[in-house]
Each structure stands twice: as C-alpha cells, then as structure tokens.
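Retro notes (design track)

What went well: tokenization of the new backbones is finally stable.
What didn't: we kept losing track of which sequence belonged to which structure.
Fix going forward: every design gets posted as structure first, then sequence, in one message. First example under the new rule, 85 residues:
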C-alpha cells in the first residue's frame, strides 16, 4: 500500500475541475495508485519532468514514485481536430 502525497499545484488544479470529474480523478488515484502493481492506466514517461502518468477520462494525472506517490500535476486532454496542427 503506497502513501499518496498531493503537491499544492495538483490540488489547485483539482479544485478547478468540475465536481463529477474531480470525484472520478480522486477515486482513480486512490484505487489505481495505492498499489502500482495492479494499476491498468499507468504509463512510464520518457523525457518528461514526471516519471509516470495516470489516464482518467479526458485528464492525465502526472506523478513521481519514490516509495510514495507524489502527484505533481493534472492536465486536461482536449479533442484534436483539423486546426490542431
């Protein structure tokens, strides 16, 4: 069982997210990141300031792991269209 620590930046970002998505993110973090061996939506990152990311719907939760999970930031992924590039 890993302890989960939220950085102030991540908490500020979480407060700005609508209530339904906020609850979904909090549930996913406690369910998936409490035991990383059982995590399904976690991916290791390369060339990024964070080591891992958790996918939760349209949001990505970026975190580091050093015996404890340190949640660094949360970002929303927007839909791509013909004007994206």
């Amino acid at each position: 069982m890993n302890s989960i620590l939220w950085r102030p930046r991540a908490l500020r970002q979480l407060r700005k997210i609508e209530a339904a998505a906020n609850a979904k993110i909090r549930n996913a973090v406690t369910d998936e990141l409490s035991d990383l061996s059982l995590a399904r939506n976690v991916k290791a990152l390369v060339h990024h300031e964070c080591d891992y990311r958790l996918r939760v719907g349209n949001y990505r939760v970026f975190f580091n792991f050093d015996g404890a999970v340190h949640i660094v930031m949360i970002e929303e992924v927007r839909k791509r269209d013909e004007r994206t590039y």
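Added context from the reviewer: The domain at 4-76 is CATH 3.30.2310.20 (YaeB-like fold).
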